[in-house]
Amino acid sequence: MPTWQLIYFSRRVEAQIECWPVGIRAGFLRVAEVMASAGPDIGLPHTRDLDAGLFEIRAKGREGIGRAFFCTVTDHRMVILHAIIKKTEQTPARALEIARARQPEVSP
């Protein structure tokens, strides 16, 4: 079975995740490692389908909760479109808007 590659929409998105607190970033990296071998659809509580080809990685650490929004593209690649640290129960609409606006730039 082919492995999946995780790439970032831009250096800025990669920097967003690099700035996450250590525990949340570690949670993200654990999920990303599983996704690399099993594919993007590993399900709750690690990933969730947000509809129309957009998914989220649900990263937790003792410092809080992070969300990385991604889509899949050809050749077994997953593109991280946007990332946030959640400060409220609900994911901010603006974060989803940013991810959805970037999605057509990388999806066929």
What does this structure look like?
The chain has 108 residues and is of the alpha+beta class. Helices cover 36% and strands 34% of the residues. The chain has helices at residues 11-18, 22-38, 93-106; strands at residues 5-8, 47-51, 54-61, 64-73, 77-86. It has a 5-stranded mixed sheet. The longest helix has 17 residues, at 22-38. It starts with a strand and ends with a helix. The mean pLDDT is 93.
* Regions with little confidence, pLDDT below 50 for 5+ residues: none
Shape: globular
Helix content: 25-40%
CATH architecture label name: 2-Layer Sandwich
CATH superfamily: RelE-like
Per DSSP E runs of 2 or more residues, the count of β-strands stands at 5
Oligomer: single chain
The top level CATH class name = Alpha Beta
Write down the domain tally.
Answer: 1
**How is the largest sheet built, in terms of strand order?**
1-5-4-3-2
Structural class: alpha+beta
